[in-house]
């Protein structure tokens, strides 16, 4: 097969192109009617009271931290397996960050690991816990919500992978983004995410005070008067706005969310069906009362028993035109951070050693998926000998 098969791709159709063209003809192409319409659609779709678009999810996390007044020496707990944005933005504000080890098979933090981190580091007061729904899997969110209430701290959901995921609690269905069991939820609209705006993100909340701060901080700290030329600066602020052009694309993409879900589920199920009989493959455990959006197909392999390693596996696939990804390298392994962080963590080490993300996206063809499956089967059989 000559075509390169990446782990993720955006899907853009004629409706997306049409609405973007239309937005370019409007008088306002920065903050206009499409911004308002997209924010309204996000609120209605995910059942939150407030939704604020922003230039990307990193900006969204920064806004979220500023909105809760995260300050120097405030204690923040976050997963060791995580994209660097959460750590970078909290570090920039001077927070005291403690990485929490993850479950070796899901890559997510657990109630037990948070308690262990608190005890080992003798932490007395916590300002914020960040949960991260790796691959779109909603794990332990109710347990973390209960812990948040017990510790009297904030809980922010990094749901960049989980747009379209949902869960059931006390017989009621909740969408990720409703913020019923968190203070703030952050989405990403990067091209490989559930839906895309090119680049972009959103911050959702049900807290009016937080919402007002988000609106002001993302717009240079400006509070506009009734006379548009007369305004005041209330906060240190930034230009974290998302343009009308991006939001126009977001409106069109959001309408396809259900269609994207069913196609991803179909791809996910086909992988799982073909790999379930292999002893050395680690499939993610099924969780009751949770609907995963299948942003990633997190594929685990016991490389040690196969007497090989992840690097060799990825190199083999690359030679075949398949480009998986890994999500993520433990934060403490990066050169810039490792001197300031805790020691190695068993769950995080195991997860990073064994898991990769296989190709999964809307326009992945059936023959391409079977090509990926057959190459992996060949690799396993070859290394069994």
Task: Provide a descriptive summary of the structure in words.
With 385 residues, this protein is of the alpha/beta class. It folds into two domains: 14-254, Aspartate Aminotransferase, domain 2, CATH 3.40.640; 257-384, Aspartate Aminotransferase, domain 1. It is built from twelve helices and 17 strands. The strands form five sheets. The chain has a seven-stranded mixed β-sheet with strand order 2-10-9-6-5-3-4, with helices on both faces. Strands 8-7-14 form a three-stranded antiparallel β-sheet, with no helix packed on it. It is globular. It starts with a strand and ends with a helix. The mean pLDDT is 94.
The residue-averaged pLDDT reads 94
What is the number of domains?
2
The helix/strand class is alpha/beta
Radius of gyration, Cα only, in angstroms?
21 Å
Indicate the low-confidence ranges by residue numbers: none
| Overall helicity | 25-40%
Let me know the largest β-sheet.
7 strands, mixed
CATH class of the largest domain: Alpha Beta
First-to-last CA distance: 26 Å
Instruction: Indicate the CATH topology of the largest domain.
Output: Aspartate Aminotransferase, domain 2
> Helix count, per DSSP?
12
Shape descriptor: globular
What CATH architecture of the largest domain would you give? 3-Layer(aba) Sandwich
Strand order of the largest sheet: 2-10-9-6-5-3-4
Order of helices and strands: EHHEHEHEHEHEEEEEHEEHHEEEHEHEH
Strand content: 15-25%
